[in-house]
Amino acid sequence: MSSSTVKDRDAQPQLKRAIGPKLLLLFIVGDILGTGVYALTGQVAAEVGGAAWLPFLVAFAVALMTAFSYLELVTKYPQTAGAALYVHKAFGVHFVTFLTCFIVMCSGITSASTASQAFAANLGVGFGLELPNTAVMLIAMGFMLLVMAVNFRGVSESVGANVVLTLVELSGLVMVILIGFWAIAGGDADLSRVVLFETPGDKHLLLAVSTATSLAFFAMVGFEDSVNMAEETKDPVRIFPKVMLTGLGITAVIYVLVSICAVAIVPIGELADNETPLVTVVQTAAPGFPIGQILPFISMFAVANSALINMMMASRLLYGMSRQGVLPAFLGKVHPKRQSPYTAIVFTTALSLALIAWVSLSPESPIVAVLGGTTSLLLLSVFAVVNIAVLVLRRDRVDHAHFRAGRILPIIGAVACLWLVLPVSSGRGAEQYALAGGLLVLGVLLWLVTFIDNRRRGVVASESPVR
């Protein structure tokens, strides 16, 4: 990269450091909780029976090992761009860096786009409206434009909205747990089901647990989004380790308690393939509780939170990699007044709107049916590479103290992630790999465009763009 390019980018306005420990904790908890736990409990129970809590625990263990690697890297390099930055520093291969960036960005945008459609659908249910598909699409698009406006307004406003949305979605889960405990204490539950393993078809126990964990892991992703906010966090080297581990612990406890209440109160057959398992749990435990009227609105807040956080992550990731020279320079512009990466926000929103239109016009598309599994598949692949990158980067010394993940945990984390990625061991459906493959092909095409643009601007692809 030429010195003039570096000077031009250094002269750009810098991101505003507005996130403290409490806001970061709510950001992480809100991102992990998201909408997964509201829909995945029944599908996990369908794979392993009453021991639905076990896959959530295994997913938490895998996430925790990977979180240690992320903590070493984010405290060592407290910059935006997250996994893509770490992979580039470790391997210095432009193509690998771009694909990593693209995969993470794509998972965030896809999740946010689908969340927006869920927001529109829940809006119709909450108000008792039979919305046609076109109306759902338009509401979803309008919602994403609102998310863009909040994101553009600035990180303080975005994280402030995240606080409100996180508290609302957390209240729904606490409500499920309290009502579940009330039913268990009153003898209206069967705790013996909690230790009952039931595997579908001819699946052996290990494969069934792996398949269920692959589903449950989608509910544990989100902690990695926070590293993309490093440049907007106050003293990230000091606060990230404690806050990230605390956030993972809180969400793991909530997931385990929710799954135990669910399988103890509702028979496994009723939970399996249930699109609203937590509604069924509360209706069974407290038939007079108006959950049918309340939960759609809580779900709206939950998916709104997921959409906002994912779009914040995607825009900051594009901004960070543009500043590092891996993506076109226009994506690294910061608004002089709002101090937000406005061009990256507009670009990611445009992609999201296109995806919403495609999903809405093709409601039976695999991207709707297997979104959770495909997202976790892509991110687990990235996590495996990050666990390897942290070991490679041990040879790179920095001039400040930072968190260390040790030598054993990253190795175990990489192996565990690969176990949940490979078709032989993970039990994933073929459609997840087909969708992931299609996204990777699109990524390769975009890399070629970026490579040509870099050559035109005089940036050599093999040259490290990381300052």
From TrEMBL:
<feature type="transmembrane region" description="Helical">
    <location>
        <begin position="23"/>
        <end position="46"/>
    </location>
</feature>
<dbReference type="GO" id="GO:0022857">
    <property type="term" value="F:transmembrane transporter activity"/>
</dbReference>
<feature type="transmembrane region" description="Helical">
    <location>
        <begin position="52"/>
        <end position="71"/>
    </location>
</feature>
<dbReference type="Pfam" id="PF13520">
    <property type="entry name" value="AA_permease_2"/>
</dbReference>
<protein>
    <submittedName>
        <fullName>Amino acid permease</fullName>
    </submittedName>
</protein>
<feature type="transmembrane region" description="Helical">
    <location>
        <begin position="405"/>
        <end position="422"/>
    </location>
</feature>
<feature type="transmembrane region" description="Helical">
    <location>
        <begin position="367"/>
        <end position="393"/>
    </location>
</feature>
<feature type="transmembrane region" description="Helical">
    <location>
        <begin position="434"/>
        <end position="452"/>
    </location>
</feature>
<dbReference type="InterPro" id="IPR050367">
    <property type="entry name" value="APC_superfamily"/>
</dbReference>
<feature type="transmembrane region" description="Helical">
    <location>
        <begin position="91"/>
        <end position="115"/>
    </location>
</feature>
<keyword id="KW-0812">Transmembrane</keyword>
<keyword id="KW-0472">Membrane</keyword>
<feature type="transmembrane region" description="Helical">
    <location>
        <begin position="135"/>
        <end position="152"/>
    </location>
</feature>
<feature type="transmembrane region" description="Helical">
    <location>
        <begin position="164"/>
        <end position="185"/>
    </location>
</feature>
<dbReference type="GO" id="GO:0005886">
    <property type="term" value="C:plasma membrane"/>
</dbReference>
<feature type="transmembrane region" description="Helical">
    <location>
        <begin position="340"/>
        <end position="361"/>
    </location>
</feature>
<keyword id="KW-1003">Cell membrane</keyword>
<feature type="transmembrane region" description="Helical">
    <location>
        <begin position="243"/>
        <end position="268"/>
    </location>
</feature>
<feature type="transmembrane region" description="Helical">
    <location>
        <begin position="205"/>
        <end position="223"/>
    </location>
</feature>
<keyword id="KW-1133">Transmembrane helix</keyword>
<dbReference type="InterPro" id="IPR002293">
    <property type="entry name" value="AA/rel_permease1"/>
</dbReference>
